[in-house]
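Structure in, sequence out. Go:
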């Protein structure tokens, strides 16, 4: 897929305020500091479309970006290490849950995982929650350039082994690096394939 156009549309904290246009949406979510904004900018071929920050938890809204005028990339708040009051964190959690449960245009969630770390309970719990609510998802391993290629293979294999303990079938996954632009084509092509298979939009 060629991303010829990517434009910011709206930020909000309420599902009812999301775009009214009936287009497929792909949500990107992960722990704070997983490299989500950098990945989005890499996918969209822009340096400053999504705001990056050295401070984890920068994204605190539901952000919609219109891609090629036919589908939305949705940037959701990170979870885990955001420096925000507990009351705000509860609000983030609520509107994230509302988005996943109520947003009919959502086609697929991409859960971002920092490939450098061992499987984290917070990520595994979120994967389980998606499965329990029948929300289709894929895994995007980020920051693959930060470790050696052989270590990447080991880390992915170890992660999949952990998933096999709870899942009958494994989700589709992608290995990416925003700095090296790794995984961009496979991920975008997958979104295009899914878009082409959708009848109701």
């Amino acid at each position: 897929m060629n991303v010829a156009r990517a434009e910011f549309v709206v930020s909000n904290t309420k599902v009812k305020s999301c775009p009214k246009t009936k287009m497929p949406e792909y949500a990107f979510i992960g722990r704070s500091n997983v490299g989500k904004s950098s990945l989005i900018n890499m996918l969209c071929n822009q340096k400053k479309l999504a705001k990056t920050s050295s401070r984890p938890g920068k994204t605190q809204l539901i952000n919609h970006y219109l891609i090629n005028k036919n589908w939305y990339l949705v940037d959701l708040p990170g979870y885990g290490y955001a420096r925000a009051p507990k009351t705000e964190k509860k609000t983030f959690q609520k509107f994230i849950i509302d988005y996943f449960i109520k947003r009919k245009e959502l086609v697929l969630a991409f859960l971002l995982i920092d490939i450098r770390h061992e499987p984290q309970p917070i990520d595994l719990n979120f994967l389980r929650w998606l499965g329990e609510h029948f929300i289709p998802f894929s895994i995007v391993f980020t920051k693959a350039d930060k470790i050696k290629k052989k270590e990447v293979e080991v880390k992915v294999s170890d992660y999949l082994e952990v998933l096999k303990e709870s899942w009958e079938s494994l989700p589709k996954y992608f290995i990416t690096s925003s700095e090296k632009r790794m995984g961009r084509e496979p991920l975008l092509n997958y979104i295009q394939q899914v878009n082409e298979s959708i009848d109701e939009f």
